[in-house]
């Protein structure tokens, strides 16, 4: 087994047989302290552990006994305990000591055991008399990877697991690729990707992959598929690739319609993206640009199966090149990348961004929202839509700085993310029009009524007059708060959503289809029963942001770009007529039916309540922001009037008390035709209730009625 010499260890005065390589290492580090000497003994896992290791790390118990050079006729001390803790003893007692105190409580990793060590490798806190020898010796473990000393066994197990999850299998924290056996292959939308065991933990891994974001990826894919149908080919960028799952889905399904670029600033992520490209039989064109090092590696000519992988900062790659489609999905907020995204994006291109800083957007950390988005928000019943409008306002200001306007195509706020998809319109005029839609919101903190401030820069004498409610006159003090600035325009484009739904059906994206149907109804402010997904007359002609688009069932083509050719004036005129027909945008915000229900009353079912609101003459629809939310153009007082009318008392005995009267705070100040009709119906309902109560009384007490 090689040359073995005997040397006396100074810490416990015992004879231990140590390999010659360890003696050489000790001679080189003789000038260092003992703790430094033990910490420098590190094991290298990537090359079958050829380096020197600490004596507490062994494969077998027999190897640990050999360190003590156990003989039957001699007493030997424990090699892992000081003499004052465990005195020298015979072989049978030493064997039990090593087995029970050191071996049974060891931590196993890759066939090695990290036994507990009681030597003075780890400095301990001295006692009150400054006498370290009298203080309790610190029991600890030596890490097999980084030579760190850990006290508790559970902490040691977690420490080793973190090394494995990060792929750190060499000493001195040299990060290398994890072995193939530790990879996990995940399949989503016919695309395979390799991920590490801790792929669902951000900040702890370079290959972050969240299965809960599948719906987000499907919505972005549908938006890209719609843009790919308008013009081919388009250059699209996934600025934060991680595993590359999103860019791989684009290239695998859209093929020659797109030229995909996947970027990430991490070396490990770029390596994993390349491996995932080969796993899905995609060719890779590598483009790595660092300080003083420009490298471009390509294997073959570019074709539909080629994906360009770049290793740069996201701001750098968006400054250097122009794209038709850009998706931003960083950790947390994306405001740091908006200026770069709108700098070189092409006209009529699309920018989509996913914000996962939910704590700030959902008003749990209001100071962070003010710092990142320059927006003052509070927690309201419509906080999810408030978050979407906050993000769009930041996007609008960033685009306006680059002389670009936006058309909001899609805004989704769910439990884990806020997704915003906008179309870019170049020119100062669209930029000014978009900037004018960023306004402040007046929010009543008593009844939660809300209204956007009117356009103009003149100060109003009484800003409370803008609110439909009368809380300021009936309540003492200040009752309203100013929120914003927020986006006050539409959150959806009906034509674009319909085409996204067609793409979702074509590619079999089952999770996105129900949400897209809800978004189409929400954008038109209609109920689901009035909507049909197979109406070719409505789907073949769409107009979006000055662009007339004919969309047959198979694919979508763009026949006119705004302001390019005069020969298409007829189509432009038809587009204007269609715009006039659908000029009514969906009303902003929504009301929660549970939040405004009356105590002691059973409210109607949500779908029935929607039909009641439609019969009353209001536009109404459900919203994806809140499962119990109702988007309507009615004011809060009118909303409560209809809700009160069709609510029933909780107890049956209360029905005999007569018709239900509205509280004073719910009375509508200004009567609209729909509200007047409701009052007429209330009078008729009251007469019916009185006649019904009289008939019921006659059946119960016929003698009294006959006497009368």
TrEMBL record:
Listed Basic and acidic residues bias regions: 26-39
Chief localisation class: nucleus
Region (Disordered): 17-47
Keywords from the UniProt entry: Isopeptide bond, Metal-binding, Methyltransferase, Nucleus, Phosphoprotein, RNA-binding, S-adenosyl-L-methionine, Transferase, tRNA processing, tRNA-binding, Ubl conjugation, Zinc, Zinc-finger
Pfam family, any one: TRM
InterPro entries documented for this protein: SAM-dependent_MTases_sf (IPR029063), Trm1 (IPR002905), tRNA_met_Trm1_C (IPR042296), Znf_C2H2_type (IPR013087)
Cell location: Nucleus, Nucleolus
Name the record gives this protein: tRNA (guanine(27)-N(2))-dimethyltransferase
Higher taxonomy: Eukaryota, Metazoa, Chordata, Craniata, Vertebrata
